[in-house]
C-alpha cells in the first residue's frame, strides 16, 4: 500500500468518526424568552401630597436559584425545577426592580427616581431581598408566589428607616406556560402597589 493511499484512507476514517460523533451530540433545546407582562395602567397619585425626596430602587438580593433567568416551579414539596425550553428576559431580581420602578413612576409621589444601575444621587434607597419568585402547585393548582423583604434606608446615614415583608400569591388561570407568565405579571403588579403605598408613608 502506497503512502498516498494510506493517507487517503486515514483521512476518510477520521471524517467518518467526526460525523458519527456529531450525530450523537445532544442538540440544544430552543428557548422561548418571556418578558414580564406590561404593568397595568394606574392613575397618578395626588401631586399635592408629593414627596420631594429622591428615591433609588436597588436590585433585590436573591439566592442562586432565584438570581437567574429560569422560570422556577415547585411541583411538589421542596423540589425546585424550572419550565423546560423557556426563560425570563432578565434575572428575576431585575424583573422585580423594574416593576417597582414602573409603579413608583406611575404613582408620582417621589420627587425623582432612579435604579441602582445609574450613578444618580438619592435621599432614600429601597433595598431588600427576594425570597420567592416562582410557581408552586397547591392542591394541584399552579399558584404564583412572590415574597419580598423590603428595607427603606437613609442614604446619608445608612440608617434603616423601616422594614416590611410583602407576600403575594396569585392563582394561575390554566396550566399553560403563557398563563403562568400572565399570572406572574398580575402578582408583580400587586406586589409593586403594596410596596409603593408602604414606602410613601415612611418619613
Descriptive account of the structure:
By secondary structure, the protein is an alpha/beta fold. The chain has a single domain, classed as ABC-type transport auxiliary lipoprotein component (Rossmann fold), CATH 3.40.50. Helix content is 31%, strand content 35%. It is built from 3 helices and 9 strands. The chain has helices spanning 3-24, 92-107, 177-200, and strands at 32-34, 51-57, 61-62, 70-74, 81-88, 110-115, 124-138, 141-154, 160-171. Strands 1, 2, 3, 4, 5, 6, 7, 8 and 9 form a 9-stranded mixed β-sheet that branches. α2 crosses α3. The protein is elongated, with a radius of gyration of 25 Å.
Summary tags:
31% helix; elongated; nine-stranded mixed sheet; alpha/beta; Rossmann fold; 203 residues
Amino acid at each position: 500500500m502506497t503512502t498516498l493511499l494510506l493517507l487517503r484512507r486515514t483521512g476518510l476514517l477520521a471524517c467518518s468518526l467526526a460525523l458519527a460523533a456529531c450525530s450523537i451530540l445532544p442538540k440544544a433545546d430552543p428557548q422561548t424568552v418571556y418578558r414580564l407582562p406590561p404593568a397595568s395602567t394606574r392613575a397618578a397619585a395626588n401631586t399635592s401630597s408629593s414627596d420631594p425626596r429622591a428615591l433609588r430602587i436597588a436590585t433585590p438580593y436573591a439566592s442562586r436559584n432565584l438570581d437567574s433567568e429560569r422560570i422556577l416551579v415547585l411541583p411538589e414539596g421542596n423540589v425546585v425545577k424550572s419550565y423546560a425550553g423557556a426563560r425570563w428576559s432578565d434575572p428575576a431580581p431585575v424583573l422585580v426592580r423594574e416593576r417597582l420602578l414602573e409603579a413608583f413612576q406611575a404613582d408620582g409621589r417621589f420627587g425623582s427616581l432612579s435604579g441602582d444601575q445609574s450613578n444618580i444621587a438619592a435621599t432614600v434607597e429601597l433595598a431588600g431581598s427576594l425570597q420567592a419568585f416562582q410557581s408552586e402547585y397547591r392542591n394541584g393548582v399552579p399558584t404564583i408566589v412572590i415574597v419580598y423583604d423590603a428595607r427603606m434606608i437613609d442614604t446619608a446615614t445608612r440608617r434603616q428607616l423601616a422594614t416590611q415583608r410583602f407576600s403575594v400569591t396569585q392563582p394561575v388561570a390554566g396550566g399553560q406556560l403563557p398563563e403562568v407568565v400572565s399570572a406572574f405579571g398580575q402578582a408583580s403588579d400587586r406586589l409593586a402597589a403594596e410596596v409603593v403605598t408602604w414606602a410613601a408613608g415612611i418619613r
